[in-house]
Amino acid sequence: MTSGVEVMKPMYYRFRAMNTDIELSLVCDGYAMSEAVELAVDWYEEVEQVFSRFRPDSELSRINRTAGSGAPVMISSMMRDVLQLTLWYQQTTGGIFSPFVGGSMNKAGYDRSFELLSRVGMSRELLDDDIHDNVEQVVDIKRAYDGRMQSPMVLDIAMQSVQLVPGTQLDLGGIVKGWATAKLSQWLCMRYGIRAGLVNAGGDLHAWNDGNGEPIWRIDVQDPIAGDDGTIYRMMGQGAVATSGTLGRQWRTGQGVAHHLIDTRTGCPSRSGIVQCTVSGPDLIACEVWAKTICIQGEAALQRMTSQLPPSYDALIIDQQGMLRYTGPAWLKEEY
Fold first, then answer.
1. Which residues pair with 187 in a beta bridge?
2. What backbone torsions phi and psi does residue 144 show, to the nearest 5 degrees?
3. Which of 54, 91, 97, 162 falls 20 to 30 Å from 152 in CA-CA distance?
4. How far is Cα 243 from Cα 207, in angstroms, rounded to an integer?
5. Backbone dihedral region for residue 124 (phi beyond 0: left; psi -120 to 50: alpha; all else: beta)
6. Domains and CATH numbers, the chain
7. Which UniProt keywords are given for this protein, alphabetically ordered (predicted)?
8. Residue 285: pLDDT above 60?
9. How far apart are CA 194 and CA 188, in angstroms?
10. Poorest-confidence range of 42-51, 90-99, 218-227?
11. Where does residue 333 rank: exposed (0-12), middle (13-18), buried (19+ CB within 10 A)?
12. Which pairs with CB-CB distance under 8 Å and at least 24 residues apart come from 178-182?
């Protein structure tokens, strides 16, 4: 996903963090831009140090290592806030979005940083695994949203601690990028007084302007099926956009091609027929969660989203045949 501006030209900076490209497009002077860049680089490094599943010294790795004993672990305020959010969205999505997919991620082969995997190009081939292999992990996941079963995690807000059922492995990659980007955008706007800007973290972005309608940002979304035959875009002054898909982050396993969106009902990479979903709306975290949920569950998740969120949220969906579906009028296709 790329971004541009129609009226005012912002200062621009790009760097790598959290295994993705981070882009800052800010309307400000050079001094403010320098401070913003320093803040952003330090912030995403801190987020990765807390939430990375692949850093052995991260807070998340420390929590996951206690899963065998089931002992409570003291956690940071950052971890507490994100875990609270994951439990909320797990409930609102009917359990399709879940933090308890770390074991299934490992089983699918995503047990190290993505650049170290045996990656494949854009492919519609899906992993054809035996879902019964993952029954134990799926039972743990279902405990979180089936009222007849106990949650695999006890989050004690007062004590600021977490306790996992033995064997449970957390993965917070489905929400952390949006959460971190939303936080950074809020700080840049409110604390640093940057009146207009856009922060884009690998396709999860938040934009704001001075309230007078300027600048207007052009948000481009890649069509993974059509490729260079056209661009899907929308114009936006303020708000958030998040894109999730199954074709971009794939790797090869002994059973075929796998991707990172785990269906909590099977414990395997999803096979909904949706290859990409982009959700736009006021809140980036909600956009990120629902884009992933729709990719995993398909039409049922779309219906759930539209019934729970206000009309200010819309979705752009691409299926395996390359068919586009829009739930709002904001998205346009530019043909070449």
1. none
2. -75, -25
3. 54
4. 15
5. alpha
6. 1-336 (3.10.520.10)
7. FAD, Flavoprotein, Lipoprotein, Magnesium, Metal-binding, Transferase
8. yes
9. 6
10. 218-227
11. middle
12. 178/204, 178/240, 178/242, 178/284, 178/285, 178/287, 178/288, 178/289, 179/81, 179/82, 179/85, 179/285, 180/18, 180/43, 180/44, 180/47, 181/205, 181/206, 181/284, 182/206, 182/240, 182/283, 182/284, 182/285
- φ and ψ at residue 7, rounded to 5 degrees: -110, -50
pLDDT digits (tens, 9 = 90+) for 145-169: 444 345 789 999 999 999 999 888 8
10 Å Cβ neighbour count for 191?
A: 9
In tens, the pLDDT along 71-105 reads: 899 999 999 999 999 999 999 999 999 999 876 66
Q: Give the torsion through C-alpha atoms of 184, 287, 244, 115, to 10 deg.
A: 20
Q: How far apart are CA 281 and CA 175, in angstroms?
A: 16
* Coil vs helix vs strand at 148: coil
CA atoms within 13 A on the CB side of 42: 6
User: Any idea which residue has 């690998």 for tokens?
Assistant: 202
Helix (H, G, I), strand (E, B) or coil at 280: strand
Cβ–Cβ < 8 Å for 164, 177: no
Residue 140 confidence class, pLDDT cut points 50, 70, 90 = very low
pLDDT class for 194, splitting at 50, 70, 90?
Answer: very high
| Rg for the chain, CA atoms, rounded | 20
Which pair of structure tokens corresponds to residue 85? 């959010």
Residue type, 202: G
Question: Residue 251: helix, strand or coil by DSSP?
Answer: strand
* Residue entry with tokens 């989050």: 155
How far is Cα 109 from Cα 74, in angstroms, rounded to an integer? 29
* Token pair recorded at residue 209: 């302007």
Q: How far apart are CA 122 and CA 227, in angstroms?
A: 10
Alpha carbons 267 and 292: distance in angstroms, whole number: 15
Percentage of residues in the chain with pLDDT exceeding 70?
77
Question: Residue 2 corresponds to which amino acid?
Answer: T
User: Per DSSP, what are the bridge partners of residue 13?
Assistant: 24
Question: pTM for the full model?
Answer: 0.85
